[in-house]
Every structure is written in C-alpha cells, then in structure tokens.
Amino acid sequence: MNKLATYTLVLAFCVGAYYAAVAAEKTTEPAKEEAAQAAPAEAAKEPVVCFESRKGASEITQREIQPGWPNVKCSPTTGAALWYGDPFDGTVPMGKMPLLDKIPEGHALVKPRSEKLAILPMCGTACHNGVGPAFSPPKLPKDKKAVPIPTMEGLLPEVKDLQHGRGRIWCLDCHHTTQRNKLVDHYGDPISFDQPQLLCGKCHGDKLRDWRDGIHGKRIGEWASTGKKRWFTCTECHNPHNVQDGARNKGFVQLQPEPPPQLPMGMKDGKHEKLHPIAH
Amino acid sequence: MAVNDKSPAVQGKAEVPENSAPPASADPSKAVLKTSRRDFLRGGGMLSLSSLMGTAALMSHSSDARAAIEWAEHFQKNYRLMTPEEKNEARIRLEKRYSAEYGKTVTVDTTEAQPGVLMGYALNVRKCIGCRRCVKACVAENNQTRGTRPGERIEWIQVLRMERGEFSKEKMDHGYPEGLGIQVGGNAYTPAGQVLEGQYHYEPEAVPEKDATYMPIACMQCEKPPCVKVCPVRTTYREADGPVVIDYNWCIGCRMCMGACPYWARRINVANPVLPKEEMNPVTHYLGNRPRMRGVVEKCHWCLQRTRQGRYPACVEVCPVGARKFGNLLDPESEVSLILARKNVFRLKAELNTFPKFFYFYD
Questions:
Q1: Pairing relation of β-strands B212-217 and B158-163?
Q2: pLDDT value at position A178?
Q3: Is the minimum CB–CB distance between A152 and chain B shorter than 8 Å?
Q4: What stretch of H or E contains A73?
Q5: Terminus of chain B with fewer CB atoms < 10 Å: N or C?
Q6: Strands B119-124 and B358-362: what pairing?
Q7: CATH code of domain B119-166+189-362
Q8: Domain ranges across chain B
Q9: Domain for residue A271, yes or no?
C-alpha cells in the first residue's frame, strides 16, 4: 500500500515534466493502478508475494514455472521466501567486476536493483533534471549537510535522519552529483544502481573482498566455485540509508521469526528452558 | 531375491588375505566385511522369524501390487552392498510406489559420490539472527513429517537461543560455602553467552533480540561419526564425499545412533509420517529426502538430492543474512576453503574427536 502511495505521489510530480521517458512512465502507471484496483474483485487468485532479505525492498511474486513447481515457496507465517524452485528467476548478468573475471561467462547473475526502486526512474528526470537556476552551476552545500527538502523527505522518509556513517558521510558520497539515476565512485564516475558493490566497496573494502569470495553476503544456485550463481548485491540486504540504528544490536534489520519447534510431549510452553538445571 | 555372494564386499573379502588389515575405506567395495548383517541375524536364528513376521504383516493389509513391491523391498540388500543393477531396480520400484502414493511424478536419484569432492559447511555465528528460515526450508525440501499430533513434526535443524553474558556487582561475594555447598564463583549460574544452555522454543515478535545470540545446530557430518560406530545394522555410514547417510530400508529403529550423537542431530519417526501430497518434494535421492516410514531414524544429509547435482543445500539458499556457506573442502577456491583459510573457525565439541565437517566461524 505504501508503495502505491509513493507511486501516486511520484506520478503527481511527473505531470509537470516534459520528458519522453516520463511520458512513457505515465502510460504504464495508470495500467498498473487499474490492475491493483481490479485485484480485490478476484481475491482468490491474488498472487502470493514474499520477501527475501529486506522486507519492502526484495519482494518476489510466486508463480508456477512448471505445473506444481513454483519459482519460490513462501512462509505462511512471516511471508519470507523459504525455498527456491529456480534460483536464477528474474536475474541478469552481473556485468564486469574487478577480480571476478575468472568466472565463466553468464555464471555470475544478479537481480537488478533498479527494478525494485520506485522513485529512481523519476530522480533524474522529474526533479534533478538539470533545468532551473539551482543547476547552473549546481549549488551544493559546502558543509556537506543535506538541506532538508520536504518533497524528498515525503517520498523517502528515511533520508530525513540518515543512519549511515555516524554523521560523517552524506548523500553525494554515494549518489552522483549530476546524474541522479546513478551512484558514484571515488573518481566521480557514475555507477549503476544494479552494481551497488562498487559503491559500498569504496569505503568497505574488507567486506567487498569477503563478498567477492562468497564469505560475506549470499550466493545461491550451484555450489562449485566456478558454478552458475545468483549473487545477492549489498542493497538486497542492507538499506544504505539505515545501516545503523540504536534500537537493534546488529547491522541487519529485525525480522519476524518462523514458528518454534514442536514442544516436548506433555509440555504446554517452553518455560522449562529458562530454568537453570542447578539451583542457585 | 538378492544373494550375498554377488556383492562387491564379498568379492573384496575373497581377494584380501584374512590377516592383512588394509586401511579403512569409505567405499564399501574396498572394505573388509567379516560378517554381513544377514549373517549376523542368521547366526542369532532370527532371520526366518523377523522376515516371516514382516511378510505376514505386509500380505495381510495391502493390495497385491503394493505387496509385491513391499515384498521386494523387504528382501532388498543394504544399499551399500547393492550392485548398480540392484540399485537401479530399487530406484524404479520406489519411483513407481511414490508416484502412485503422492499423485505426481517422483524421481529417486541414486547418483554416487563424485571423485574430488569432499563436502564442507561453515556457519557464521555472528551473523545468525535466529529467524529459523533454514529450519523451515529444510522441511520444505526434505519431506519431513509435518503433522500436528505429538511426534508428527520433525525438524532437522535446531536453533539455540543463548542469553548474552551478564555479570553483576551484587553477586560478587555470593557463592561461598552455604550449607553443604561447594564453593563457586558468585557469578556462576549466570548466562555468559557461548555456553550450550539455551532455548529452542523462543518466540519473540522480532529477531535478533538485543539480549540474545543464536546458534543453529544440525548434523555435523563427522569424519569420525559416533552414530556410525554404534549402528548394529550398519545402515548409517559415511559417504565418500562426506555426508553421513541412512539407508532407511535397513534401519531397525533401535535409536542407538540417537544416543550416540553428541549434537542431537537425529530424529525418529515414532508416528506415521504426515506428508501432504501437494507439499511433497518430488525430486528425491535414495539416501536423501525420499519419504520415510514409521520407525526409522532420519537427519540432515546436506540435501544430497541437490548437492550431488551441484546445487546448494536448501538452508544455504534461504538464510536472509548469508550466514550459511557450503562448498568443496578439496577446492582451495571454494567458499568454505577460503573461510577455513582466512577466518576464525571452531568445531562444536571438538574435544570429542568426532571431526565435524561443519564449522562455525565469525568475522
């Protein structure tokens, strides 16, 4: 529902823009909304949607690849993806990556992040489009403190209080100054949103190395070191705007757990586990 | 009916002089067997009795076709001693039976261990958030019983919740001999993190909890498995590529292995397994996730039906934090080899000399 609201908001912003890309976006949007409205009428057929690592940012829609063989099985309790019928469903080649050139062609796959980002298609067109006095030359705060923009914060509330870097990094350490549909590397060159590892790796080199070797993050598919794998990119697990949060003790957002195992025969709850076997 | 003389083990025995002891081998065709289970039972004068009882039971309540299949199954050899032809027969027989039973095409793979592969596993205890997705993925993949009544629900992975360490000033001078007590430190009996004194039935709204760490445990696929040592019918054994497997058809349900396992990894089907047709995973392996019967023991086998075909185990694929790692220990480029080379690694209860191929690590 949240996403729909975002879409509608974005749509409202797009109306003012003249770009062909935006026009194309507009023609698809109403169709999507119609579909969403028609959905409740045939509730029985409503597709099962579950999520991988990040709730709200890594959703998969269940469908049958072969009769009786779904692309993914989902937990009825938590809506988590619990089993992959096809680990490569919806993936594209990762693209060139430093030191991963030994992997055979087509064996390193990723799910493109840009497909999941609702605002991204408008960033560089509707708002940060280079048109207007603020852009020639671009006026950026010298102290690197983000100027609160109500529109931006309305679209993406989490940027109001950026929880990354403990106040020592800001938006344009990650986002490209003039091409807002791109991330940025140390040389100021653009990086695709589908290759966030190149961005994160510029500051978290140790994690990038472990990720490259399959130790940090996750890969699914074939286990042989030269096998065909889907690699999870950094932002499939980490929300870059919110990696630090005092309320939790890990860099990973809290999730609802799956139900516990069956209780031992005759027991009504698991309280016995909390008792120390030896009296104090 | 299978005849023992044809089995590779017996041929092997004929070639090896009685008193030279070759090194133990995971390959049964190279092993020296002094007595087979059949001889053992025959020696005890049990064969006729147990077989006849079983046969009578089979004939009395089944349709003829099914009885014929079960009859053949009943007299089938220990899987390890079967010839490739016999394995194939068993495969076809099982595929027919399961397909009819579950109303879909069920395959029973019999792929053997591949040369040059020794499977290994590593788990990052620092990352685990205790979400139990691995537990449920394992059930979706491995056809465990999932009923509601006691004993009808089996899960192979257990996730242990452990309280974080806690030491308090108030207790500093407690614990000196009180009554007949033995002197202990004042903060004894308070959780200190990494002790096996945890909870399996935790149920918070969200994990990870601030005051807890989590430790998943399943079969460690020991290189020196105590369960294999105690099995009186040698139906559980270590495969050449690493996993410890069970030929369910030869399991007599004595539970010796359950008692021997220091990792609480083995489960017994005390009730008739409950496995709904639509939830049944039709891609199976003979030594892996094929449906089990009442009275047999089962456990994790690293998803043999997947891993022998090159695919990651189911638990590895669903872990949302990427804490679970699997690969070939003989390949220096594999993720487990790199973890062993680079990270701080430990084996659970290493002092028992079971030599697990399941490693815990942290970064």
A1: antiparallel
A2: 86
A3: no
A4: strand A72-74
A5: N
A6: parallel
A7: 3.30.70.20
A8: 119-166+189-362
A9: no
Q: Same structural domain for residues A58 and A109?
A: no
Neighbouring-strand partners of residue B358: B121
Examine residue A23 and state whether it is found in any structural domain, yes or no: no
Q: How many whole angstroms separate alpha carbon A159 and alpha carbon A164? A: 10
Q: Which of A30, A64, A86 is the last residue of a domain?
A: A86
- A116, A156: one domain: yes
Residues A110 and A211 occupy one common structural domain: yes
Q: Locate B146 and state its tokens.
A: 């999932």
R_g of chain B computed on alpha carbons: 23
B/e letters for B204-228, b = 16+ CB within 10 Å, e = fewer, are: eeebbbeebbbbbbbbbbbeebbbb
Q: Quick check: B264 and B198 in contact, CB under 8 A?
A: no
- Note whether A52 and A79 are within 8 A (CB): no
Note whether A67 and A194 are same-domain residues.
Answer: no
Q: What pTM value is reported for the model?
A: 0.85
Residue of chain B whose Cα is closest to the Cα of A272 = B199
Mean pLDDT by 10 residues, chain A (280 residues): 44 38 38 44 72 93 92 95 96 92 92 92 82 74 84 89 89 91 94 96 96 96 96 95 71 89 89 66
Q: Domain of A60?
A: 47-86
Based on the domain organization, do A80 and A155 belong to the same domain? no
Q: Would the CB atoms of A83 and B314 count as touching at under 8 Å?
A: yes
Burial A169-190 (b: 16+ CB within 10 A, else e): ebbebbbbeeebbbbbeeeeee
- In this structure, the answer to whether residues A93 and A77 fall within a common structural domain is no
Confirm whether A165 is domain-assigned: yes
pLDDT for A210? 96
Residue A26 in any domain: the answer is no
Tokens 């090194």, residue located:
B23
Same domain, residue pair A133 and A102: yes
In A123-249, alpha helices (H): 150-155, 196-200, 205-212
* Count of domains for chain A: 2
- What pLDDT, on the 0 to 100 scale, is given for residue B14? 39
Contact between A144 and A170 under an 8 Å Cβ cutoff? The reply is: yes
Report, as ranges of residue numbers, the positions in chain B whose pLDDT lies below 50.
1-24, 31-62, 196
Please check whether residues A57 and A134 belong to one and the same domain: no
Pick from A80, A87, A213: CB nearest B133:
A80
Cis amide prior to B208 (ω within 30 degrees): yes
- CA dihedral (B108, B326, B146, A72) in degrees, to 10, reads -80
Rounded CA-CA distance A149/A141 in Å is 13
Distance CA B330, CA B137 (A): 27
Write down the pLDDT at residue B175.
Answer: 66
Smallest CA–CA distance, residue A40 to chain B, in Å, is: 26
Q: Chain B within 8 Å of A251 (Cβ-Cβ)?
A: no
